[in-house]
UniProtKB/TrEMBL annotation:
PANTHER family: MYND-TYPE DOMAIN-CONTAINING PROTEIN, OS02G0130600 PROTEIN-RELATED. Pfam families: Rost (PF21534). Keywords: Membrane, Transmembrane, Transmembrane helix. This is Protein rolling stone. Residues 298-335 are annotated as: Disordered. The chain crosses the membrane at residues 33-52, 72-98, 149-169, 175-196, 203-226, 246-272. The keyword DNA-binding does not apply. It comes from Lymnaea stagnalis (Great pond snail). Residues 302-324 have a biased composition (Basic and acidic residues).
């Protein structure tokens, strides 16, 4: 375990290349491809529907004037929801593209499923993007998988912090369905997606949500300096990020960006580690059952083979005894 943790802190772990791109397009427990496709389709449709609902809700119920509708984009909740929707869109388009590509391959070669396969089915998805190095099978990671991984790293920690910040700081006792969904199901999506899919999670990728959060809070300062207001005309977007009180705001922002974001990212790494641990236990249990069954079958077969061998040996000995007796009778003198 310690070796694995040390491996997480190698410089190359900052990057978006991965040794096995297959993990980005399947579930951890190897559910059928159609299940993974439906999973991506569901979250794509879900986020598109709710981002539209959030925009309409803000314009009708929160903005003082319909012309203030564009202020929807100044809120961290909404920009994160937008990025999460983009993430789900990219993920769905990737699996749709790979599904169509694989289907086209089967149509072009309908007997391919009957032929021996030297590689796994999932590896065929990345045909043309494989490379062999030092005799070991390694893969370049396609750009679209890097994009998907980058986006998921950005929205993973941020969605959970948005949920925590809203329900502990911003919630004032009154809300509506859209707000509840946007500030709750976002976290459900992040955790469930991390548990179900085989997508990896690396500690050093905390730099991506940190940069996103830093850029957002820099925007809030520029927006304040330019005289921007929220939906209610107040000179700040969030009460805890009021730049007219520079000192406490700077402390809150620094703690949020440099402490809270990395901590949440590491918590998600723990969830990922639990997923790998759980899968390995289930997989080893399945393997143990298969081995036990195979051993029992082999033992039974050995006993049968032993009995057959003993029977053939006794038969052969009896046959030889009779042959020796016949030979003695034929060679004995006649008196």
């Amino acid at each position: 375990m310690s070796t694995s943790i040390r491996e997480e802190f190698r410089l190359r772990k900052f990057g978006l290349g991965y040794c096995d791109p297959d993990t980005f397009v399947k579930t951890q427990c190897r559910l059928p491809a159609c299940v993974y496709f439906l999973w991506r389709l569901f979250w794509f449709v879900w986020h598109v529907a709710w981002i539209i609902g959030s925009g309409i809700n803000s314009r009708l119920n929160k903005a003082r004037d319909p012309d203030e509708g564009p202020k929807w984009f100044i809120y961290l909740t909404n920009t994160t929801l937008l990025l999460t929707t983009l993430t789900c869109t990219v993920d769905f388009l990737i699996i749709l593209y790979l599904t169509v590509r694989r289907t086209a391959s089967v149509i072009d070669n309908p007997t391919s499923d009957l032929a021996p396969r030297p590689v796994k089915n999932d590896e065929i998805i990345f045909r043309g993007e494989m490379m062999l190095m030092d005799g070991l099978k390694e893969f370049t990671t396609p750009w679209y998988l890097k994009l998907s991984w980058f986006l998921y790293n950005v929205v993973g920690s941020t969605n959970i912090l948005v949920t925590i910040m809203y329900w502990t700081v911003e919630f004032n006792g009154s809300t509506d369905v859209v707000v509840v969904v946007v500030h709750t199901i976002n976290t459900v999506f992040i955790i469930s997606n991390l548990l179900l899919t085989a997508m990896p999670w690396q500690i050093l990728h905390f730099i991506y949500p940190v940069l996103y959060a830093a850029l957002y809070f820099l925007f809030t300062y520029i927006y304040y300096a330019a005289g921007g207001t929220d939906f209610k005309g107040r000179p700040y977007i969030y009460s805890t990020v009021d730049w007219s009180k520079a000192y406490p705001t700077a402390v809150y922002v620094s703690l949020g960006v440099l402490v809270a974001v990395p901590i949440v990212h590491i918590v998600l790494f723990a969830v990922y580690t639990f997923r790998i641990f759980l899968f390995s236990k289930l997989n080893s249990a399945t393997y143990s059952t298969q081995v036990t069954g195979a051993s029992s079958s082999a033992h039974h077969q050995t006993r049968v083979d032993g009995a057959r061998s003993s029977f053939h040996h006794e038969t052969e000995m009896t046959s030889r005894s009779r042959s020796d007796q016949d030979e003695e009778l034929m060679t004995s003198p006649i008196h």
